[in-house]
Design a protein that fits this description.
With 533 residues, the chain is of the alpha/beta class. It has two domains: 242 residues, YjeF N-terminal domain (Rossmann fold, 3-Layer(aba) Sandwich), CATH 3.40.50.10260; 276 residues, UDP-N-acetylmuramoyl-L-alanine:D-glutamate ligase (3-Layer(aba) Sandwich). Helices cover 40% and strands 15% of the residues. It has 20 helices and 19 strands. The strands form two sheets. It has an eleven-stranded mixed sheet with strand order 1-9-19-18-17-16-15-14-11-12-13, sandwiched between helices. A hairpin with a 3-residue loop joins strand 17 and strand 18. The longest helix has 19 residues. The two termini are 18 Å apart. 54% of the residues are buried. About 2% of the residues have low confidence. It binds ligand NAX, adenosine-5'-diphosphate and potassium ion (K).
Length: 533
């Protein structure tokens, strides 16, 4: 860990910044200058001809960045209008403000002043950044709603984040949870040092537009201060201006090499067992089994009850079939120590899953529990006591709500009374981590912003807002099979889950709109080849 790009919480970001300043080798003003310069540079890249810009500066250091941006764009020949507050910001922002005042005036930060001026090509939102702690109100809330008008979007540039966005959760403070209508949606967001969870979760990806991460020279302190548990992002759905983003495959290759020696044989590549359901419902488990094969498990055996064997007679021929009626059959099968990964849930039936779960969990074998197995866990809470660190639970939001109703409830909080919402808001990341700690298992909370968490707090986010066509029947079964296949190959559970999620997304990206779940396993060889796996 981290796999892919590192994500920092806002607390980790502040700790990094403080460590840098405490070292005496970099000042807050220097960081602010670098931050502002990076944003001005990104604006000039996109608008090479100097035009008109309105810079909206808030009360803190985000506003300080705004004054730097104003000065730098003015120096580059832009016609700059600055709206700001008559408050006493911190010393760095105050210094930047004074430097701007030597160049031009500061108009009041009001909707009226915003409306009165000439049209601008670009509006820079430097009102709130990581310091936002409560919903914007009064005049600033009015301005933000005004900026939320779609006519601003093409020219709206957010400094660190669109103002009002909680960078730990991706919720808009003050907006009903899960909605962001009339929130300021930027064309471009330039964030500093590392992405924050809020850039990748909930409304964040929708409101940030293109996300650029600018290096402001904090790497040494970020790596040195070890504030809290590090988070990984599995898909760089943003530009990394400093080249620090590592492609995931290079990072995980070492883990995958396990069992893939040139002298290996099929058993050294693992044996995955996919448990299927009764007659007429075998499709889901077959999707999982095909995915487990494509993920490189040496053997995959599909285990329906005897009465359903006949319907699994068709290809793929690489798939082995073996009847499994009850828990005794499973226990007997598991005496074979070579079975190294199991998948229970897709198309299995809740009752059958509940019958098989005790034997499966007692074996302590790496396993993925999806779909009906999750519902069985929710309806038989006593079973949850046997979960262990090599179990991977893969709930979508509905299943998560059944398994962890109190945690799901907190995720919704604020929706009835948005004004009461405080930051940082309880996030999907918090929810997955809390669920994983409670279950003592890996939790993969599915969605366009998939979060994967381990009981010890390690976590990853996979951002798939670019893949709406992945929300299709059976896609989850394929994901479960990929996890099972990689578990069977001997990858540790968190790593297997992260890699499976990434491969799943990459397969969907490759296929594009129109994909069906059946296509996903077939796209894997190309994804694996292309990523050097
Ligand atoms: N972390 C870093 O490494 C760096 C941070 N910089 C900038 O500094 C920002 C953080 O600065 P600050 O901590 O000063 O915070 P912000 O500038 O984000 O805003 C916080 C200020 O607004 C007030 N505030 C919070 N919520 C409010 C609300 N709803 N209504 C009215 N006032 C509210 C706070 O009391 C505080 O004064 C970052 O987002 C970034 O733009 C850069 O200048 C340099 C490097
Ligand atoms: N809007 C979305 N954009 C991208 N991916 C999504 C979206 N909604 C869901 N997904 C992904 O699609 C898959 C759907 O899984 P699931 O809900 O279990 O479906 P099923 O049970 O039909 O297989 C998951 O990998 C999930 O993360
Ligand atoms: K901002």
């Amino acid at each position: 860990m981290p796999i892919g790009t590192e994500i920092l919480t806002t607390a980790q970001m502040r700790a990094t910044e403080s460590a840098a300043m405490a070292s005496g080798r970099v000042s807050g003003a220097a960081l602010m200058e670098r931050a502002g310069r990076a944003v001005a540079g990104q604006i000039r890249l996109r608008w090479p001809r100097p035009g008109r810009v309105t810079v909206l500066c808030g009360p803190g250091n985000n506003g300080g960045d705004g004054y730097v941006i104003a000065r730098r764009l003015h120096q580059a020949g832009w016609r700059v209008r600055v709206l700001g507050l008559d408050n006493a910001p911190g010393p760095d922002a105050e210094a930047m403000r004074r430097q701007w005042l030597a160049i031009g005036p500061i108009l009041p930060l009001t909707e009226q002043a915003l409306r009165d001026g000439p049209d601008s090509d670009v509006h820079v939102d430097a009102i709130f950044g990581t310091g936002l702690t409560r919903p914007p109100e009064g005049e600033i809330a009015t301005i933000l709603r005004h900026l939320g008008d779609s006519r601003f979007r093409d020219g709206l540039v957010a400094v660190d984040c669109p103002s009002g966005l909680c960078m730990d959760s991706g919720a808009m403070l003050g907006w009903p949870r899960g909605t962001a209508e009339h929130a300021p949606a930027a064309r471009l967001t330039v964030a500093f040092d590392s992405p924050k969870p809020g850039h990748l979760l909930e409304q964040g990806p929708i409101l940030c537009g293109q996300l650029v991460i600018a290096d402001i020279g904090l790497r040494e302190w970020r790596e040195g201060q070890g504030a809290g548990i590090r988070l990984g992002c599995l898909w760089p759905a943003f530009d990394i201006a400093d080249g620090r983003c590592q492609p995931v495959p290079a990072v995980v290759r070492a883990g995958l090499d396990k069992g893939r020696t040139r002298h290996g044989h099929k058993f050294s590549h693992g044996h995955a067992l996919v448990i299927a359901g009764g007659p007429g419902r075998g499709g889901a488990a077959r999707l999982s089994a095909r995915a487990a094969l494509r993920a490189g498990a040496g053997l995959v055996t599909l285990c329906p009850p005897d009465a359903a064997m006949a319907e699994h007679a068709q290809p793929p021929d690489a798939l082995m079939r073996r009847p499994m009626d009850g828990a005794e059959d499973l226990t007997a099968l598991l005496t074979d120590r070579r079975i190294s990964g199991l998948c229970l849930g897709p198309g299995c039936g809740i009752d059958r899953a509940a019958v098989l779960l005790p034997a499966l969990l007692a074996s302590r074998r790496p396993c993925v529990l999806d779909a009906d197995a999750l519902t069985a866990l929710a309806t038989h809470p006593a079973l949850a006591g046997a979960l262990h660190e090599a179990c991977v639970l893969t709930p979508h939001a509905g299943e998560f709500g059944r398994l962890f109703p109190d945690i799901a409830e907190r995720l919704q909080s604020g929706s009835d009374d948005p004004a009461a919402m405080r930051g940082p808001a309880f996030s999907r990341l918090d929810a997955a981590r809390e669920a994983a700690a409670r279950a003592g298992a890996i939790v993969l909370l599915k969605g366009p912003d998939t979060v994967i968490a381990a009981p010890d707090g390690r976590a990853m986010i996979h951002s798939a807002f670019d893949l709406p066509w992945l929300a299709t029947a059976g896609a989850g079964d394929v994901l479960a099979g990929l996890v099972a296949g990689l578990l069977a190959r001997g990858l540790p559970a968190l790593r297997a889950t992260g890699l499976a999620t990434w491969l799943h997304g990459q397969a969907a990206r490759r296929l594009g709109p129109g994909l069906t779940a059946d296509d996903l396993p077939e796209a894997l060889p190309a994804v694996l080849r292309q990523s050097g796996l």
